Amino acid sequence: MEKAYVYWFFGLSGSGKSTLADALALRLKSLGEQVLRLDGDQMRAGINKDLGFSSQDRLENVRRAAEIAKLSLEQGISVVASFISPEDIHRRKVKEVLGAKVHLIFVDASIETCKLRDVKGLYQQQAQGNISSFTGVSAPFEKPMDASMRISTEESSVEACIDQIMKQWKEQNA
Amino acid sequence: MEKAYVYWFFGLSGSGKSTLADALALRLKSLGEQVLRLDGDQMRAGINKDLGFSSQDRLENVRRAAEIAKLSLEQGISVVASFISPEDIHRRKVKEVLGAKVHLIFVDASIETCKLRDVKGLYQQQAQGNISSFTGVSAPFEKPMDASMRISTEESSVEACIDQIMKQWKEQNA
């Protein structure tokens, strides 16, 4: 139970949050940990389908995810979460709910890179005027001042990013 | 993943839902299963603290719990849930979200027995006029027509109830 943590990846759409989160979840499981994966898209299709994309609704989106993470954590199950969490208030809410048990990991990639990747075709849809509130384009993304860690997905491979994360936690917990 | 299920205990306050759910969770863990425990009180202190006790809010309470159970289930983690779920619409919502993967277990004890037990002192508070919407007294509890199973906590010990549940699932899944 003591080694259970919440790993909260945040950043722009296309920055690589889900890819890193999936890879970290696999890594933790291979080390014998119980892991719950929480993802923004997954939750918007289920528990959060009553919520929109205003700053307030994004805050409620993040609050619910953090509360689920908390009850999982209390039962010794680690959580790997991927949410855009665009504003400082969103990250502060996560910290407020989870305290010292959360690692906030800023997944950094430039908006130009994210547009080029456009894995879900969302940047294209936005350019065609089909999405009104789109983080980094028509809605704010506030670069974090207080993340536990920053990972650039422009500079390193997925495996190298995960190695970097595992190394940092090991040093912190040594 | 195939053997992951949701075990959803429902019934009056004081019927023994949480006691049975805790015992079943322990039993499943001892068999090597990963288990998440979800409880009404626990969720009302966290993710559901924005909700009250109207029929509508109780439905949203149950919907969120069922959605959390679903995402846990999809990752091979069984869920043991204890919620009053007083009306048929609440149980139908659980079925709607979770389909064939949920076992609805009606924890049956008479209101007289529950009042005598009054573990949380809630029936006394209600009698003193401090609780306006109290299931079985001033708010409805609809006896289920369609539970997967009924367990009487007036007739059997906790261990005997758990044995009965395990036996029934084994037969169903044989």
Core attributes:
homodimer, 174 residues, alpha/beta, Rossmann fold, 5-stranded parallel β-sheet, 5 strands
Q: Can you walk through the features of this model?
A:
Two copies of one chain form a homodimer. The first copy, chain A, has seven helices and five strands. In chain A, 45% of the residues lie in helices and 15% in strands. The first copy, chain A, has a single domain (6-173), classed as Rossmann fold (3-Layer(aba) Sandwich). By secondary structure, chain A is an alpha/beta fold. In chain A, strands 2-3-1-4-5 form a five-stranded parallel beta sheet, sandwiched between helices.
Tally the helices of chain A: 7
Radius of gyration of chain A: 16 Å
Q: Which architecture of chain A per CATH?
A: 3-Layer(aba) Sandwich
Unreliable parts of chain A = none
What's the CATH C level of chain A? Alpha Beta
Average of the residue pLDDT scores of chain A: 90
Number of strands of chain A: 5
With strands numbered from the N-terminus, the spatial order across the biggest sheet of chain A is: 2-3-1-4-5
Helix/strand class of chain A: alpha/beta
The oligomeric state is homodimer
The amount of helix of chain A comes to 40-55%
Outline of chain A: globular
Q: How many domains is the backbone of chain A divided into?
A: 1
CATH topology of chain A: Rossmann fold
> How many strands, what sense, and barrel or not for the largest sheet of chain A?
5 strands, parallel
Report the span from N to C terminus of chain A.
17 Å
Order of helices and strands of chain A: EHEHHEHEHHEH
CATH superfamily of chain A: P-loop containing nucleotide triphosphate hydrolases
Strand content of chain A: 5-15%
Greatest contact pair? A-B, 19 and 19 residues
